[in-house]
Structures are given as C-alpha cells and as structure tokens.
Design goal:
This protein is α/β, with parallel strands linked by helices. Helix content is 36%, strand content 15%. The structure holds flavin mononucleotide (FMN). InterPro entries: Aldolase_TIM, Dihydroorotate_DH_cat.
Length: 424
C-alpha cells in the first residue's frame, strides 16, 4: 500500500483536489491540514478515463485509427465490444473501383531478428491504399453499427479528388449513415497523391485551405484533419485546417519510407513483381517522431487556438498505456492506434486502459483533463537550455565559493574559512 505524496495530505477523510502542477507547499494551506498522512486506498477512487471531445463522449481516449482495424462491419463491431473509446473506419472515397491494391503490401522491421523473422515487430511499412470496398457497402455497415451501438462514437474517414461537388456528395452520403464525426485523410503518402489526393493536399497549404473550406461549409458533424508528417513544418497545414473551420487535428499518418533491399535478390521490399514503391512507416519505431510532431502542433494550438474547443488526436506507435500518457501529457485529447491493433489484437484496449490508469494512480490524477498538456511547458529552444544550464552552474559555483580575499576573513569558523581560501 503506497503512502500518498504531499498532494494528498488532508486534514479529514475527504480528499482535497488541487489543480495539476499546484505547488506542494500551497496544498497544505490551512494549519488544520498540516501533518496528516493517510493511505491511498482510503481516498483514491478509480481514475476516470472518459473524455468529451468536440461534444463527443467516449468511455476512454483510445480510438481505432483508420486502416485495416476499421475495414468492415465485423472488425468495427469487435472494436466496440472490446471497449475502444471510438472507431475510425478505413478511409472511403466515392468510387472504390479506382482503388486497386497490390500484394504483398506490408513489410516489417524486427528487433533482434538476426534474419530469423522472429524478433519483435518495431517498424511496419505499408503500400496499402484507402478502402477498395464499394462505398455503398461501407455506408450500410456504418448505418448498421450506429443502429447497434447508438451511444458509441463512429468516425468516417474520407478522401476525395480536388473537386468541390465530389467532397459535398461524399460528406452528404457518410453523414446520412449517422456517423458522429468525420476525419479527413489529407495524409496518405502513397498511391493517392498520384491522383492529387491525400498527402498531395496535406502538403499544399493553399489547396488544403480551399478544400477544408468546402468541407466545413458542408459538414454538420465535427471534422478532424489528419496531417502528414512528410512535410518540413507540420504546424503550417495544421493551422490552415483549424483556420478553415476544422474542429480538430489528427497526427500523424505514416512516414514515407523504404523498408529495405533484399541483399540476396537485390530487390526492394515489399516486392511486387520485382519492384516496389516508397510506402508509409508506422508502429513502435515512429513513436518518438510522432511525439515531436504532436508536441509542435500542441504548442501552436496552445498559443493560437485557445478560444474554442479544438481537439488534437495523437497517432503513432502506441502499444502501451505509457505511450498514450506521453501523447496526453503533450496535449492530445484522444490517442489513436492502428498498427498496434494489427500486431496485438483488439483486446489491446484492456491493457492500454489498465496501464493508463496505473500511470494516473501513480500521480493521483483522477481524470484525463487533469494532466492533459502538463509536459508541454517543459519544452523550449536549445539556446534557452544553454542559458539555463549556464545559470545553474554559476549558481552551484557561487554556493561552493568560499572567501574571495583576506578582507572577508573574520576568524570565526577558522577551519572552514581557511579551507575555502585555499580552494579558491
Ligand atoms: C496497413 C495500414 C493501412 C492504413 N490505412 C489508412 C487509411 O486508410 N486511412 C488513414 O487515414 N490512415 C491509414 N493508415 C495510417 C494509420 O491510421 C496511422 O496514422 C499510422 O499507421 C500511424 O499509427 P500507428 O503507428 O498506430 O499505426 C494505415 C496504416 C497502416 C499500417
């Protein structure tokens, strides 16, 4: 049984809640409260994982990211049954017949594999396109899911060519099914950019602004813009999306990659008829890169978009509750998981929730909002790090420094004074 820290020191049996980051000394505000220590189990109620994002209520912040885990009715139903906070379906477009996939379309990077193929998967490349299932089929399945799970959050991911009427038609059709929100895929790095879709729009701020305006003039549900990391400064398109009416930003989609070259055959992977094409990198290996992108977007949102209920959905390499906590500490409202589900299965959500609760208990956080964005304040420029370190070293030296000259000599504390003069 853990003793509580100073943040839980209370003077009676009811726990006093303080805002996150509230100095410990101020928490013992009245004399009555000082000196009482009580045990965690006496006061701690179960941490609350529920979140409300753009008016959407979710039992937890864990969202199935668009991709194979949201490819059809059966798997999305499984996701709801396992307890995922929300589900984002595989990206749909008006004409699925134009979407032609190849096989193989995945390649994996393993740790400690030594070529055995048995190591833990740390990186995943795909050259999969958006959904190749007929739109009508997907729409019927959305309708069915909303009928069976009216209180759960189903989000449609959509993508279209740069044509206003096409976007309007697609929005109309997905909204008719009763979905709760829309995520716009401005970020698929392969295949679709050749048709001026996906990352081709997300990398062109002018075009992005125009398309976002069409979308937001039409949509009646919250809209999240999913950003590509394959751009120099991800905050630029994220800002454009929010300025153009989107309620939220999601980041990141996959990182442009070439998984490797087979040293026996000399052909690249994944190998289709002897050839390959750069694809999208995901899984554990991308988590640090995703953290950096999410951190930049969160800083931008904090400085420029505080007036409205804008949201941030973080994505990239989440496999543990700790990975999710990191994103939330940077300011994310929700955390999406795609490859993690493909590697570990839908019941991963149970482990994610349990681990996130463990983290919250460790710090006595009772809700997600209590620690959301808390670590953002600890990022600064490298120049500032140098300045702070110089200041800290000077302070330490000053504390160690003894008497500078004979005139400071008093003779009191003879041993100390003489030693300090010798060490100067
Ligand atoms: C096989 C595969 C297919 C994907 N398909 C889509 C898609 O259709 N639409 C989309 O927005 N993102 C798609 N993604 C990207 C993921 O949603 C996610 O942004 C990315 O993989 C990083 O998260 P992760 O490390 O949790 O997978 C796909 C990812 C993978 C691995």
């Amino acid at each position: 049984m853990a003793l509580l820290g100073s943040s839980q020191i209370v003077g009676n049996s009811s726990s006093v809640k303080f805002p996150a980051g509230f100095p410990a000394w101020k928490r013992c505000g009245s004399k009555r409260n000082v000196g009482f220590r009580i045990f965690a189990s006496e006061t701690q109620s179960e941490p609350d994982l529920s979140v409300t994002v753009n008016g959407l209520n979710m039992p937890n912040p864990f969202v199935i990211g668009s991709g194979p885990p949201g490819t059809n009715y059966k798997v999305m139903k499984k996701a709801f049954d396992e307890g995922w906070g929300a589900v984002i379906a595989k990206t749909v477009s008006l004409d699925a017949s134009k979407v032609i996939n190849v096989t193989p379309r995945y390649a994996r990077l393993r740790a400690e594999a030594n070529g055995s193929g048995l190591g833990q998967i740390i990186g995943w490349q795909n050259i999969e396109l958006i959904s190749d299932r007929p739109l009508e089929t997907m729409l019927q399945e959305f309708k069915q899911l909303k009928k069976e799970y009216p209180d759960r959050i189903l989000i449609a991911s959509i993508m279209e060519e740069c044509n206003k009427a096409s976007w309007e038609e697609l929005i109309d059709r997905v909204e008719e099914t009763g979905i709760d929100a829309i995520e716009i895929n401005f970020s698929c790095p392969h295949g679709m950019p050749e048709r001026k879709m996906g990352a081709a729009v997300g990398q062109d701020c002018e075009l992005l602004g125009e398309v976002c305006e069409w979308i937001n003039a039409k949509a009646t549900v919250p809209v999240w813009a999913k950003m590509t990391p394959n751009i120099t400064d991800i905050t630029k398109p994220a800002r454009v999306a929010l300025e153009s009416g989107c309620e939220g930003v999601a980041a990141i989609n996959t990182i442009m990659s070439v998984m490797g070259i087979n040293l026996k055959t000399l052909h690249p992977e994944p190998c289709v008829e002897g050839y390959s094409t750069p694809g999208g990198y995901s899984a554990k290996a991308v988590h640090p890169i995703a953290l950096a992108k999410v951190m930049s977007i969160a800083q931008m949102m904090k400085s420029d978009f505080t007036d409205k209920d804008y949201s941030l959905s973080a994505i990239g390499g989440v496999e543990t509750g700790g990975d999710a906590a990191e994103f939330i500490l940077l300011g994310a409202n929700t955390v999406q998981v795609c490859t993690g589900v493909m590697v570990h299965g839908y019941d991963l959500v149970g482990k994610l929730c349990a681990e996130l609760k463990d983290f919250m208990r460790m710090h006595n956080f009772s809700s997600i909002e209590e620690f959301r964005g808390m670590s953002l304040q600890y990022f600064t420029t490298h120049m500032e790090l140098v300045r702070m370190q110089k200041e800290a070293i000077q302070k330490k030296k000053a504390m160690k420094k003894g008497l500078a000259s004979d005139k400071d000599w008093t003779g009191d504390g003879f041993v100390k004074e003489s030693e300090s003069m010798v060490s100067n």
